[in-house]
Amino acid sequence: MASNYIIRRAVHSDVNCLIGLLEILFSIESDFTVEEFKQRSGLEMMLNDDTRRCIMVAEINQQVVGMCTAQILVSTAEGGFVAVIEDLVVHKEYRGKGIGRGLLLSIESWAIAKGVKRLQLLADRNNTVALEFYKSLSWKSTQLICLHKK
């Protein structure tokens, strides 16, 4: 496990680095494309509402090497708040060092402090490495599938 990284809340000056991380993530996920203007806009919206949205970053030597994002929604099934984790990515050269786990745990801690009753995330069905990673951290698959419409 890497011990020389810190995890902190993202700030506006991190946006360019975060866009670079999203490019890495979107190169894995076939449902998304890199459109810098859209990613910048979404990241700024998240950073502008730190009560219901959170971006955590991992930093080594003042360089952002990973990120994890979450947003709070209301669930009728849970009768309360749930958090959706949308983006979890670590630079390739820093994977396997515990950084992804640390980011995910930091988002979980944020969500618990906000009173969230359930965490949920989407993962590309073909990203077996990510699916095994989530399974190793006790995440469970559901019978639900994701649909979207633009």
From TrEMBL:
<dbReference type="InterPro" id="IPR050832">
    <property type="entry name" value="Bact_Acetyltransf"/>
</dbReference>
<feature type="domain" description="N-acetyltransferase">
    <location>
        <begin position="5"/>
        <end position="150"/>
    </location>
</feature>
<dbReference type="Pfam" id="PF00583">
    <property type="entry name" value="Acetyltransf_1"/>
</dbReference>
<protein>
    <submittedName>
        <fullName>GNAT family N-acetyltransferase</fullName>
    </submittedName>
</protein>
<dbReference type="InterPro" id="IPR016181">
    <property type="entry name" value="Acyl_CoA_acyltransferase"/>
</dbReference>
<dbReference type="InterPro" id="IPR000182">
    <property type="entry name" value="GNAT_dom"/>
</dbReference>
<keyword id="KW-0808">Transferase</keyword>
<keyword id="KW-0012">Acyltransferase</keyword>
